[in-house]
Amino acid sequence: MRLCFVVEEQYRFDGMPVEVIRQLGVWGHRVDVVRPGTSLLRLSEVVQAGGHDAWVLKTVSGGPGLALLEAAAAVGLTTVNDARSIRGVRDKVAAAVVGRSRGLPVPETYAVPHPALLAELPSAVFPLVVKPAEGSSGRGVRLVRSPDLLAAASAGLSGEGMLIAQPYVPNSGVDLKVYGVGGELFATERSSPLHPGGPRRERSVPLPVEVAELVAEAGEVYGLDLFGVDVLLGPDGPVIVDVNDFPSFRSVPDAVARVARAVLELARTGGTVPGAAAVGPLPPPEPVPGPVPGPVGESVPVPGPLSLLTSAGVPFRIPATAGEAG
Which of 11, 134, 216, 249 is the most buried (most CB within 10 A)? Predict the structure, then answer.
């Protein structure tokens, strides 16, 4: 296959996607890399209908790469993830509205051009988590505990464009990041950036069925094939606080091969469209190591009606991971 990866400078030396690109080359596939942030692009040559089996995007939120991916989609090329789905989750305002309208446990969300306007909210709504509507990787996230602290938040978030604010969900100070790749889900527990005084840790953890069902449903709602969902275990149950396309997949067993296989399968099938179920795992095109043996990487079926199905009708699988991340 011939693939095109759109990679911005921030990820030029990042394992995701550099190692994935290298793995695809080892398997005999041709991978072209486009860096939209530093290159003069002749669009008629770069984006050619039929020139690539699929385009893959790894860029920062708000970067120029998404427009290029959307151009490829406009001429009928397969994109990973679907370009419309990427746009939908990168705009946190739109993602919040879509999630709540589809019944996902997304906190009440307020949108403002400047954090000072949040002073119009009753004090009972505080503490608030405030962040850029097109932010990523935890950039610009602030915990504003009371209205009188809005001035400090305003200084830190100046020039960020539209902002969103959500009531703080009481939790243990640990975020749960669940990755979806190749029809499987993997959970990582990491220290919350909103609790800087606590111990720093990141590790793979078992994935509760309740959370697995929720994340599988979120992948379907947002139409994503490769994704990450940030979940907080609040007093009233799990809450979705963020959704990302093509995340880092940190602590996912054999992540490079899994992501590479998923990209090839999506290129072969033409990917999914918004609202469609994620595609299940495909045997690799070349002999590569199978799933990691033992408890890490072991998969179990998701019960109940919220399970995502592959095109063959096989339940979306949840890996039961345990132990410290490598």
Answer: 216
Residue 24 host element (H or E): helix 15-26
Q: How far apart are CA 205 and CA 252, in angstroms?
A: 11
Global pTM reads: 0.80
- Name the token pair of 61: 């939120």
pLDDT tens digits for range 160-178: 678 999 999 998 888 899 9
Residue type, 239: V
As a whole number of Å, the CA-based R_g of the chain is 20
pLDDT, tens digit, 9 for 90 and up, residues 225-274: 999 999 999 999 999 999 999 999 988 999 999 999 999 999 999 876 43
Long-range contact pairs involving 144-148 (C-beta distance under 8 Å, separation at least 24): 144/115, 144/118, 147/118, 147/119, 147/121, 147/123
Is residue 301 classed as helix, strand or coil in its secondary structure? strand
> Which of 63, 56, 60, 65 has the alpha carbon at shortest distance from 20?
56
Beta-carbon-side half-sphere exposure of residue 158 (alpha carbons within 13 Å): 5
How many residues in the chain? Answer: 326
